[in-house]
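Moderator note: this is an archived Q&A kept for reference. The question asked for a predicted structure of one protein chain; the sequence and the answer are reproduced below.
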Amino acid sequence: MSIPQFNIDVFRAINDLGKEFSSLNPVVIFVAEYTLYLLALSIVVYWFTYHNGNRVMVIRGGVAFILAEIAGKIAGLLHSHYQPFAVLSNVSKLVEHEIDNSFPSDHTILFFSFCFSFWLANKKSGWPWLVLAFCVGISRIWVGVHYPIDVAVGALFGMVAALLVYWMEPKFSFTKQLIALYDRAEQYMLPSSKRSRNY
């Protein structure tokens, strides 16, 4: 399907920054490719603080990601286009990426699902997570692998899913049941472990 000119123009404006400010490219590449590991590590740390609030927050983010990813796959069936570097000329392509449907951005769905969930759980300390999610979205355009519409829709799906889970999760008991089930499994596997929980 054809790409609207406005979408291409915004992509060019951001992607061309990689040519104008090439000294920033290593930082942008790191954000685009490797902050995924920072997010994964943070999820593990939050979980193993044994703080129930943190665990609920992680579960909400995970459920939000699943819902947003399902919505993204459905949207991808209704509309599809290849990555900018595969279609446009003179694209500043800074990372390796296979050619497939780039709509919407899976990276952006992932980060906004979790980061918006973290912000909803604690609005005072959650702002850095929102900033990180925004930077990841911009970086995916900067490195040439997504159009702005890919990122915008991915962010929208992630935030809407996070908000729905935040509203709906307290009405159900599955979160507490899941945490209790995990605790029993861990106690069975590590019966001698002494852990301090903050419930």
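Archived answer notes: Residues 52-78 form the longest helix (27 residues).
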